[in-house]
Specification:
The complex is a heterodimer of chains A (about 600) and B (about 350).
Chain A (H helix, E strand, L loop, with lengths): L6 H16 L2 H26 L7 H18 L4 H23 L6 H17 L11 E2 L5 E2 L2 E2 L3 H23 L2 H8 L4 H6 L4 H27 L1 E2 L6 H14 L4 H21 L7 H19 L4 H6 L28 E12 L2 E12 L3 E5 L6 H9 L6 E6 L2 E2 L5 H6 L2 E3 L12 H8 L8 H5 L4 H17 L15 H14 L4 E5 L7 H16 L3 E5 L3 H7 L2 E6 L2 E6 L1 H6 L1 H8 L4
Parallel strand pairs in A: 7-12, 7-13, 10-11, 11-12
Antiparallel strand pairs in A: 1-4, 2-3, 5-6, 5-8, 8-9, 13-14
Helix pairs in contact in A: 2-6, 2-9, 2-10, 2-11, 3-4, 3-5, 3-9, 4-9, 10-11, 10-12, 16-18, 16-19, 18-19
Chain B lengths: L2 H32 L6 H16 L6 H22 L6 H22 L6 H12 L2 H10 L7 H23 L13 E4 L2 E4 H23 L1 H11 L1 H6 L4 H23 L9 H15 L5 H21 L4 H7 L1 H12 L4 H4 L9
Antiparallel strand pairs in B: 1-2
Helix pairs in contact in B: 1-8, 1-9, 1-11, 1-12, 1-13, 2-5, 2-7, 2-11, 2-12, 3-4, 3-6, 5-11, 6-11, 8-9, 9-11, 12-13, 13-14
Chain lengths: ~600, ~350
């Protein structure tokens, strides 16, 4: 059955291999353009479909790559290979500056600035004497590999599509690696990402620069195939066409770049034949057609074409490691009973409302601490203060002896504090295994390059093994290959617990993990938490199910209206008149 | 640069800036209420200026066809949607709103075109025909995706811009237009001569900004718009329909765009795609206010006007590069100022393509 999922890919490769024998020069040139656009569209697939960002200035990056090599080879008489380095250097540099300026801001600032910058670069290209102003640069040499010149149509065809195949393979590998998973997790919010020790900003920057580099590569190929560059193809309009390619093809899929590039390029070709029949402004009408197509696409079929096809193919089966070298574990406090978390006078105000008001308590090593209180008592806000998602107005929070009051969430996670969320934060379009693998991010080291060229396989195997163990622990081992979004809510909570455990935490903070669980699932969870305590894990548990809490925890802290109401053993809390009043509104 | 030139450039910059102020306010308004970054705003400005110019040249402006096409599309979408939900009793009202109302100014222009019209009639007709454009665009392009992310809405907005500017070329051709000045007087202010048109622009900008302020502060509709901007779900809970506030926001934006076009038409020669650049420069101004603050957007817009004016003196070919290039330091500065406060905004759950 498995080979069936490879049929479309096999057919596509076969077609590309035999195409030079079947088609004439015109079609081959067209396919060369498709390949070149596919590089730039691939960048947008990674950026938009995978990373959840968008750029309208991708064509401008193609332009920087093209102009860099054009200037160096045609004006300076240098080698196209050095031109390639320059193309990548310049696109990488510009992307870094632009990304650094905008990526800390809301998601729409980057695309907005790419509109402005796409226009600015067009005027800039058109006004610099050294690169020929609006008339552009000609006389760009062909690329040659040793003695073989790539001046001919077919030679260029082989080079472009061969290179595209390699680059797509590398991108596929990357997405399936540690860094790739982090990139795929960007979409859907910062809170979960940072709680896993992933640097949200730097990961976004990395994906933007990567998209820029792919555009630079595209520009390099473009300049040496066309042998001439001018500002027009790098304006805003080609930028939006590239984005259309990525979205038509299917912005979440690497293959979408090629499919989209092919469809849009062919469509353009047809329009250029048909539209002049109706109007002398056919180029403008073309963009009207594209604009309308874009709107219809986003309204009716936002996922693009590739997912429509791949839906009918069997999912590739997951091969899971039977055993692997275990991942290194974290050093943890040896003395049981030593305070791991110390909260001193923590206060958080939202305007006049003190959501957390001067709360102090300790969480001791190896204990399960229950944090309870009526709705709105400030429990989740307190957890947010501990995990760094919110900053306290006053007070101090210590981990062992380190002050971590003002640390960002990912630094707190790095100390060994893992958490789950009251409103489940998973990546519904990733598998259960991938979601839990995100938890191992902090315990693994492989970088982008290692992921792309598969030097990470040993570590990846260990991480997968670890993730699978954690999935089994929460009772979801059988479903490792399913999409997280297909789980019922209760099991999604268990999945979050598995992800938190995969980080090998010292303290794990669980925000209502039993809400929505069925009886049997609750039993599994409560057994698991007991096992974890016996292994020396420290657990902070926020939960409304009193039976669950009372049977499990060592001590309880009760909050009400933002303040600590009581602290003690479960039996003491049960007998406490103030607690009864807070919960029941007065003792009958 | 002599002080006289500096003053002249400042005057020029302020009057262009005043136009950008109105555009920037419209952009911020639409963004806050609907989360749509209305990139085609500038195109609507362009349509307005070209419509007035065409009327003055005794031609039939293509805007008529645009409005009729949009109205037809919107009517079909609305009636089809109502029929599918079985709410046929609401069809007459939909027909009135989406078919009849936009057709009235189109019919008037169709009757009036080709005649010598007094200035005010031309202006009134232009206002009337431009007003329905943005609400119709909202109905057709944005409302079906009202719950999509800001990013998807932005991509739609850019697509709408391209469609609009392509159509503008079809309707108006590649030639440039300049409409007749509304005020021809010149004032001597010390060493500089100030045209009546500049004063009109600055005064109108101030007046309409103030009216917008009054609208938000004093009227129930204005307050509903503000409520939607602050909290969409909360507004819905107290009975404010997001689609109604959305349409109102777009209507206001259209009015602002029409006014901008009427004001700027006599100042520079405008082509079918000039509006977009005007809109984009106003965007730079609005971004200075983080796209969320009206006063900061206004200040930013004036700043952009001045920057453009001085940059044009220094190197007129590169003035666009300066204005758009200025965005980068502005954004870096904002990253430092707002960097930490923006995190919640990034929190956008998207579940598209989960099928």
């Amino acid at each position: 059955m498995r080979w069936r999922s490879h049929i479309p890919l096999g057919l596509a490769i076969a077609f590309i291999v035999v195409a030079p024998a079947l088609f004439g020069s015109f079609t081959i040139t067209l396919m060369n353009y498709i390949g070149i656009y596919a590089f730039a569209a691939l960048g947008l697939v990674l950026l938009t479909g995978v990373g959840g960002l968008t750029s309208f200035g991708q064509a401008a990056f193609v332009g920087i790559g093209a102009y860099a090599t054009a200037w160096y080879t045609a004006v300076q008489g240098g080698s196209p290979w050095i031109g390639l380095l320059l193309a990548l250097l310049f696109t990488g540099l510009v992307a870094t500056v632009l990304g650094a300026a905008t990526l800390r801001l809301g998601g729409h600032f980057l695309p907005l600035s790419t509109i402005a910058w796409g226009i600015a670069i067009f005027f800039l290209f058109g006004n610099i004497d050294a690169i020929g102003r609006y008339s552009g640069l000609s006389g760009i040499p062909a690329i040659s590999i040793g003695p073989i010149s790539l001046g001919g149509n077919i030679a260029m065809y082989c080079f472009i599509w061969g290179l595209l195949g390699i680059v797509m393979l590398l991108c596929r590998n990357l997405l399936d690696s540690r860094k790739g998973r982090a990139i795929r997790s960007l979409r859907g919010g910062i809170a979960m990402v940072e709680s896993l020790e992933i640097d949200f900003f730097r990961m976004r920057l990395a994906i933007f620069v990567l998209a820029g580099l792919l555009a630079g590569l595209s520009g390099w190929l473009y300049a040496h195939m066309q042998r001439y560059v001018s500002p027009a193809p790098f304006d805003l309009r080609p930028g939006i066409e590239l984005l259309l390619m990525a979205l038509v093809g299917g912005a979440g899929h690497i293959a979408g770049a090629v499919v989209g590039a092919a469809i849009i390029t062919l469509l353009k070709n047809v329009l250029q034949d048909v539209l002049p029949v109706f109007t002398r402004y056919s180029a403008q009408l073309e963009i009207v057609v594209f604009g309308v197509l874009f709107i219809v696409l986003l309204q009716k079929a936002r996922a693009g074409i590739v997912p429509m096809i791949s839906r009918y193919l069997p999912l590739p089966r997951l091969t899971l490691p039977e055993e692997a070298h275990p991942l290194a574990r974290r050093a943890r406090p040896t003395v049981s009973g030593r305070p791991v978390l110390t909260i001193q006078g923590a206060t958080k105000r939202f305007g006049a409302l003190a959501a957390v008001n001067d709360v102090s308590f300790e969480v001791k090593s190896g204990e399960v601490l229950g944090l309870i209180g009526p709705n709105g008592a400030g429990k989740t806000t307190l957890l947010n203060l501990i995990t760094g998602t919110a900053r306290p107005n006053a007070g101090q929070i210590l981990f062992l002896d380190d002050d971590m009051t003002r640390l960002p969430p990912r630094h707190i996670a790095a100390k060994g504090v893992s958490r789950t969320f009251q409103h489940v934060k998973l990546r519904p379009n990733m598998t259960l295994l991938d979601n839990v693998l995100l938890g191992t991010y902090s315990r693994t080291r492989s970088g982008f390059l290692a992921g792309a060229i598969r030097l990470d396989r040993d570590e990846e195997k260990s991480a997968q093994f670890e993730a699978l163990q954690q999935l089994k622990r929460v009772g979801l081992g059988e479903k490792a290959g399913e999409l997280a979004g297909n789980l019922p809510l209760g099991q999604q909570r268990l999945l979050e617990v598995a992800r938190a455990l995969a980080a090998d935490p010292v303290v794990v903070i669980l925000d209502e993990p039993a809400a929505g669980l069925r009886r049997l699932e609750k039993q599994i969870l409560s057994d698991l938490l007991r096992t974890l305590r016996n292994e020396g894990m420290t657990i902070v548990l926020v939960e409304h199910d009193m039976e669950f809490v009372m049977n499990l925890v060592d001590r309880i802290v009760v909050m009400d209206f933002g303040a600590k109401l009581a602290e003690g053993l479960p039996a003491e809390i049960r007998a406490d008149a103030r607690v009864q009043e807070a919960y029941l509104g007065g003792v009958a | 640069m002599t002080p006289e030139i500096a003053l002249l450039l400042a005057q020029d910059g302020i009057s262009t800036g005043a136009i950008y102020v109105l555009v920037a306010l419209g952009i911020v308004l639409v963004f806050l209420v609907t989360r749509v970054i209305f990139v085609p705003f500038g195109d609507v400005v362009g349509y307005s200026a070209l419509t007035l110019a065409a009327l003055q040249l005794r031609q039939m402006p293509g805007t008529v066809w645009l409005v009729l096409t949009l109205a037809a599309l919107a009517t079909v979408m609305e009636v089809y949607g109502l029929a599918r939900r079985g709410q046929t009793h609401r069809v007459p009202k939909a027909l009135l709103l989406y078919a009849v109302l936009p057709t009235i100014p189109a019919a008037l222009i169709w009757l009036a075109a080709g005649r010598d019209l007094p200035m005010w009639v031309g202006i009134a007709l232009t206002l009337a025909i431009i007003m329905p454009i943005s609400p119709l665009l909202y109905r057709i392009a944005f409302r079906p995706l009202a719950d999509a992310s800001v990013l998807v809405l932005l991509i739609i907005a850019v697509a709408v811009h391209f469609a609009m500017s392509g159509l503008a070329l079809l309707y108006f051709g590649p030639e440039g237009f300049r409409s007749e000045p509304i005020m021809r007087v010149l004032f001597e202010l010390g060493p500089v001569t100030v045209s009546g048109q500049s004063i009109l622009i600055v005064a109108s900008s101030a007046i309409f900004s103030f009216l917008l302020f009054l609208f938000f502060e004093r009227t129930l509709t204005g307050k509903a718009l503000r409520a939607t901007a602050v909290n969409r779900v909360g507004a819905r809970l107290v009975g404010i329909f997001p689609s109604t506030t959305g349409a109102t926001a777009f209507l206001l934006a259209s009015a602002l765009a029409a006014i901008c076009g009427i004001l700027i038409g006599p100042v520079t020669t405008l082509y079918y795609d000039s509006g977009f650049l005007i809109g984009l420069k106003a965007f730079v101004g609005a971004i200075i206010g983080g796209l969320v603050s009206y006063p900061a957007a206004a200040v930013g817009a004036i700043f952009v006007g001045l920057l453009e004016s001085y940059a044009a003196f220094w190197d007129s070919a590169l003035k666009e590069v300066f204005v758009f290039g200025a965005l980068i330091p502005i954004l870096i500065w904002q990253s430092f100022v707002l960097g930490n406060g923006i995190e919640e905004e990034i929190e956008e759950e998207e579940r598209e393509g989960a099928a």
